Amino acid sequence: MNWSGQRVLITGASSGIGAAIAEAAAKRGAELILVARSADKLEAVAEGIRRHGGTATTHLCDVSDAEQVALLANEIQTPDVLINNAGAGRWKPLVETSPEEAAAMMEAPYLAALYMTRAFLPAMFQRHSGLCLFVNSAASQLAWPGAAAYTAARWAVRGLFEAVRAETTGTGVHAAMATFAKVSSDYWKNNPGSEERVPVAQTSVPILSPQQVAEAILDGVAAGREEIVAPWQLRLKFFANRLFPSIVRREMLRVN
Ligand SMILES: NC(=O)c1ccc[n+]([C@@H]2O[C@H](COP(=O)([O-])OP(=O)(O)OC[C@H]3O[C@@H](n4cnc5c(N)ncnc54)[C@H](OP(=O)(O)O)[C@@H]3O)[C@@H](O)[C@H]2O)c1
What we know:
oxidoreductase; Rossmann fold; binds NADP nicotinamide-adenine-dinucleotide phosphate; SDR_fam; oxidoreductase activity; alpha/beta
């Protein structure tokens, strides 16, 4: 897929990975539809894109709220590419996670991605084209102590991606998932207590910047890949986990 001229909607575009994807996609000629809740931060990302000659509109929406998503879907034309990236959640052991925190972690990213995809899929089906991409974490394939609700929510996103891929097969619409280990975004500042619980195994996987993640996504989609995993050391971990699950599971138990 060539990014030039594509209308790309990104949730969670006010910060980190979402903002970096927006800036990189704009450089490749895409028209951006930026969605998040923080007006100032979202406008700053859009302004930066416009200053460099790109096109970006901003839309305030809590994507974990089904009614707000329905209003957004009425307000804008269905994009060519939907990037479900919005997400948050503090890493905590299960017994320290309140029911409210656990529910909030399922609301974004998982339910948010479900509401957004559900809202735009019908028009994509009618057009026989479109791409729904899910940004995900290594926690969607591996588990370690101290991040229970976060991990469960990322497995849910992976399940949603698989379901959307199955339901779109043969329709002209496509699904993709991009999975990363640690990224040096504001996630760690925005979700206090999480960084302390990064597994020791992360030391053998280089930390990526949001810009590196954005390029991996754009290149992966351009190459037609449905499953994008970066860096390559993380692919190796997933492969090892398929061959020797008990060894990798033991390795993941060691947390900082
Ligand atoms: N950082 C990492 O190491 C890493 C690695 C792999 C995967 N990921 C995943 O990538 C996603 C993005 O993370 P990031 O590192 O870019 O974190 P971040 O810098 O904290 O950005 C999170 C973004 O999500 C938006 N957001 C959160 N809840 C929202 C809601 N209910 N409605 C609308 N927007 C919402 C935030 O915007 P507003 O607050 O303005 O709404 C913000 O733009 C997360 O799901 C994260 O789990 C992160």
